[in-house]
Specification:
Layout lengths: L1 E7 L2 H12 L8 E6 L5 H11 L14 E7 L4 E8 L7 H5 L2 H4 L5 E5 L13 E7 L9 E7 L2 H8 L1
Parallel strand pairs: 2-5, 2-6, 4-5
Antiparallel strand pairs: 1-7, 3-4, 6-7
The protein binds adenosine-5'-triphosphate and magnesium ion (MG).
The site of magnesium ion has 5 residues, from helix 2.
């Protein structure tokens, strides 16, 4: 497993990280899980990443719907993206009924917040990103972001 981490002290630093990931062609097939406390920046990061990939308009947090789907048209190809927030996922039948199982078998980018709430359903991701608050005397919005690559694709994504 390859890991790297950085101190994120601003939204622009988070955006730079998202832009860098979005610039990798392999992102279009990646499975990414975001771990971290409430308000640690998972949805904010996802918004930056999706905007960087070309998603226009509002990017809603899928807390109630569990899943939001996007299709980005580019001159050369379409990018299919699914954003999950499993915070309120508590009905195992939903995995089959809402078609989540099928989504994870499709080509495209899948990003999941609160993956531990769907433990046992989700497979190992390419990237597992951990958002941790850091206490600082200055009261800044400081976070440590650790990126763990759990597959060859994940390793390529963070080495590129
Ligand atoms: N450096 C930073 N990185 C990320 N978020 C930041 C940063 N600085 C300030 N924020 C703010 O912190 C909040 C993070 O909220 P966000 O909804 O992204 O968290 P979340 O991890 O998705 O929470 P939840 O578990 O409720 O889904 C946003 O209001 C964002 O603007
Ligand atoms: Mg969120």
């Amino acid at each position: 497993m390859i890991s790297r981490s950085f101190l994120c002290d601003s939204l622009s630093s988070l955006q730079r990280f998202a832009d860098q990931l979005a610039s990798q062609p392999l992102i279009e097939e990646a499975n990414i899980q975001l771990n971290g406390e409430l308000g640690s920046g998972k949805s904010t990061f996802t918004r930056f990443l999706l905007q960087s990939l070309g998603v226009k308009g509002t990017i809603k947090s899928p807390t109630y719907a569990v899943m939001e789907e996007y299709l980005v048209h580019t001159p050369s190809k379409d990018i299919h993206i699914w954003h999950f927030d499993f915070y309120r996922f508590n009905d195992p039948s939903e995995w089959e009924d809402a078609g989540f199982r099928d989504v994870f078998l499709m080509r495209g980018l899948k990003i999941s917040e609160w993956p531990e709430k769907a433990k046992g359903y989700l497979s190992q991701p390419d990237l597992w990103i951990d958002f941790q608050f850091i206490d600082s005397a200055q009261g800044e919005d400081l976070r440590n972001i650790q990126i763990n690559a759990l597959s060859k694709r994940g390793e390529a994504l963070i080495s590129g």
